[in-house]
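Peptidase M20 dimerisation domain-containing protein, Litchfieldella anticariensis. Tokens?
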Amino acid sequence: MTESTTQAALGRQLMARLDEAALHSRPGPGVTRLFCSDEHRGVLELIADWMRQAGLTPELDASGNLVGRNARAMAGEKTLIMGSHQDTVVEGGKYDGMLGIALPLQALQALEIDGTELPYGVEVVAFGDEEGTRFQSTLIGSRALAGSFDRASLDACDADGVTLGDALEAFGGSPADIPQLARKPESVIGFVEVHIEQGPVLEQRDQAVGVVTALTGIERHRLNVIGKAGHAGTTPMKGRRDALVGAAEMVVEADKILNATENFVGVVGKLEVRPNAVNVIPAEVTFTLELRSPSAEVREKGRKEILETCQRLAQARGLELLIEPTYQAEAVACAEWLIEALENACQACHEPAERLFSGAGHDGLAMNDLTDIGMLFVRCKDGLSHHPNEAISVEDAERATRVLMRFLTDLRQHRKPAARLEA
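Tokens:
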């Protein structure tokens, strides 16, 4: 069998696995697989089989992660952690998250078949919840490993009133034991995640892979615009306190500010109107505002401008505006030594791989509290993600698998700086 044939086989097998994982979904377009759901349970059985084929021993941990360890990791040797999340947004794609589970397992299995034994421990983690779709919570599994899990998140409820703690207990997890999952920093080499880019840069560069320099900072706010209801036919237009008109102005102005600011993106993704009747002036509107930037300074300045503009617009229309911060995660930088190690692997595989930052948040935001992080991006068609049409090519699947295999075999040549351990 020639090298090119072997690589093609790896790419095809990886894509077949991703197709199979996508079957574990609620009915409907794309993939919908929520934390602690039947679909979650089903896909873990599949992933556990992949882990065993890669020479790893799978185990469901207390926080709902499926963790596969090689013999060295189980013996307590210093360990490289890889992985990503199994959960999706509603009607999402096949590759967001799942690629970062399937590809490392494919690479490890290929190395084992070749007789290559890695001289360090390896864990691959299928994190339970990163998207926060069911409980509006994020990074539960990765925060557990990093030792930054907030027990208050166990009280979060889904749309049916089920708490995260109860759902996790029913799933086979153990909320009371989550604090014991925290890894010791000195036992970990680093954390590396493979992920689709979820953007157009690699496609514009005509490159299969890219090396990530930083994960963006994210913050979310809930804005409550309060006006006054009235009969839509008898209340004069002048002087109306229409909460929806005011909210609409705020959304448009926020969009203008975002468009005018470099390295700053955001969205109003959810909007609720009360009483939401065809012939009643809206009395109250609640909408979400999410802001992202790899620069804390840019994000803070942009947030200040947007929220001050919203306050001014509310005052001009006689509306009350309540603003509640609901989530914040600061940007984190990838470790230079891991960036260089991934770049070297790309070069050895004749893959151009320029550096770029991630506009999305990932489990690395939490894992950075524990250890150095690195990330390899894989090109996705049209930069599309969180959508049923999310796609990568067989060829790029081959090339990314080959790069990760080279990274793993060469990792012994790279040393984690001691400064990280002393911090």
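The chain has 13 helices and 14 strands.
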